[in-house]
Design goal:
Layout (H helix, E strand, L loop, with lengths): L12 E3 L5 E3 L3 H22 L7 H21 L34 H12 L9 E2 L4 H24 L6 H24 L5 E2 L3
Antiparallel strand pairs: 1-2, 3-4
Helix pairs in contact: 1-2, 1-4, 3-5, 4-5
Length: 201
């Protein structure tokens, strides 16, 4: 790319994978835009975490998550073939299984690995008996912020899946990722000796 600016989006449209153009507020653009924002928040999280033996595992895993999110963004930026873009059944996300017409194969993300990481960090945490307020150390607060952006990205993908086919594994991944980020925020705060602030109704 010779120049970073192309001027093709000056009238409020953008190009998807495959060449089709849609308004920049299209549900598909909102979905991959929120995933991109989540990825950027994780970049800020990583910038706050100093390389230490006890944090190296978390840093490595978050880098892997960033790569996953980049792949998810690319999938979301790729509309299904015109003959498969029918509305998904209400209340469920349509899968993207392979067909003879060459539709996308349902991607496989590391869901089990995510659950293993959640279990790993949970064993170091005291059980939750109350809701907690987001905050704590800089790393913990940023992980809480990333968690809320992850939930927004998940809502955007749900909205898109009500109109067009979306690989169901994306929703599973984002749902599990928000749980991981919550657990990681608590773990960082615990390791840094910052007490959690309980919600007082």
């Amino acid at each position: 790319m010779a120049k970073i600016y192309t001027k093709t989006g000056d009238k409020g449209q953008t190009g998807l994978m495959g060449g089709s153009r849609v308004p920049k507020n299209h549900p598909r653009v909102c979905a991959y835009g929120d995933v991109d924002e989540l990825n950027s928040h994780l970049g800020v999280v990583l910038a706050t975490l100093e390389p230490r033996p006890e944090q190296d595992r978390l840093i490595k895993f978050l880098l892997n998550v960033q790569n996953d999110l980049f792949q998810i963004g690319a999938l979301l930026a790729t509309p299904p073939p015109a003959d498969e873009a029918s509305q998904a059944p209400p209340g469920r996300s349509a899968g993207g299984g392979a067909t003879e017409k060459g539709s996308q194969v349902e991607p496989s993300f590391k869901i089990q690995s995510m659950e293993d990481e959640i279990d790993h960090y949970t064993q170091d945490l005291p059980p939750l008996k109350n809701f907690i307020l987001p905050g704590g150390s800089p790393g913990g607060a940023m992980l809480h912020l990333a968690r809320t952006v992850c939930r927004r990205a998940e809502r955007s993908v749900v909205e898109l899946s009500s109109q067009e086919k979306v690989p169901s594994s994306i929703l599973v991944y984002l749902n599990r990722l928000s749980d991981f980020l919550f657990t990681a925020a608590r773990w960082i705060n615990t390791k840094q000796g910052v007490p959690e602030t309980m919600w007082k109704p």
